[in-house]
Amino acid sequence: MKVCLEKILVFTLFVLLVVISAMLYGKCRRGAPRPPAKSGGNECETVYTRVLGKKGPKPVVVFLSGLGNDNIWWNWDEGPEEIVNEAKWPRNSGIQKPIAEHTATMSFDMPGVGSSKIASVDEVPASFEDVAALVKCLLVREALPPPYVLVGHSIGGAIALVFQKIYPRDVKGVILIDSPSAATLKSIGEPEFYTKRGQLKYDITRRYLDNYSRSRAQVPFEQARALPVVAHVNRQEVDGACSDKDAAHVAFAVSAYPRVVQYVNASHWIHVTTPAPIIDSILEMVETN
């Protein structure tokens, strides 16, 4: 663990310098605010949503899944047998239902994922801002007014940050679950990042990766430290040591976000393997005035 912590410290100092430079550069080049993104097509009408809990005075909690994951990953108590067996993680309470006991919640399947069927990869949203506009459209469709607490796993965390940038008055806070760094968003556009073949499913996933990589500049990492953000970050360790990649991942989170909760060997799907602290973190944000 000492070796891993030393790596994280070195990477944190480096990332802090990069983030500060980006903030100064952003202030120099920032002009008039950008208009909100517009959602094209009819994907808002066909996207599957799952709304649980009663509407009331508390913020609506919106769950944003990682790449290729459907709403089941927020409802692990209902995980299909084959997925549970493959993941080797026992069923538990999940995340959405425990939160729905306190306030209204919404999870959904991205176009081309789970129950949100598409006929062509051309129906995949073209950018992070397009996905944020789609989420806004879904919330309007389901008559779920702001404020919102956004909970994003993996790439869903980047979507949450973009949503907050476009609709700042709508967002009370953001919970990130092992979300990608700026460097990771760049790397997902590389051909070797995702090599599984599976006809339409592969093509859809590849299109998402390409679109996210191309639009990665839309993610406001340089602004995140001033926002109400809690980041939950995992690193894998073997004999107290972690890889340079994991050390850099944790260091980026520590430098970019105001509050970071670290896990060791909890997997990338922290909300599935260790739901209790995620639930507590969400409820703390929901209940805070």
Describe this structure in words.
This protein is 42% helix and 15% strand. It has helices at 2-29, 43-46, 81-87, 96-100, 128-141, 155-166, 182-187, 199-214, 244-256, 270-273, 275-287, and strands at residues 49-52, 60-64, 105-108, 148-153, 171-177, 229-235, 237-238, 241-242, 259-264. Strand 7 and strand 8 (241-242) form a beta hairpin. Helix 1 (2-29) crosses helix 9 (244-256) and helix 5 crosses helix 6. It is globular, with a radius of gyration of 18 Å.
List the helices and strands and how they pair.
Elements: H1 2-29, H2 43-46, E1 49-52, E2 60-64, H3 81-87, H4 96-100, E3 105-108, H5 128-141, E4 148-153, H6 155-166, E5 171-177, H7 182-187, H8 199-214, E6 229-235, E7 237-238, E8 241-242, H9 244-256, E9 259-264, H10 270-273, H11 275-287
Parallel strand pairs: 2-3, 2-4, 4-5, 5-6, 6-9
Antiparallel strand pairs: 1-3, 7-8
Helix pairs in contact: 1-9, 5-6
- In whole angstroms, the N-to-C terminal distance is 37 Å
State the major sheet. Answer: 7 strands, mixed
Helices and strands, in N-to-C order? HHEEHHEHEHEHHEEEHEHH
Fraction in beta strands: 5-15%
CATH superfamily: Alpha/Beta hydrolase fold, catalytic domain
Q: Looking at the chains present, what oligomeric state does this protein adopt?
A: single chain
Number of helices: 11
Structural class: alpha/beta
CATH architecture: 3-Layer(aba) Sandwich
**Adjacency order of strands in the biggest sheet:** 1-3-2-4-5-6-9
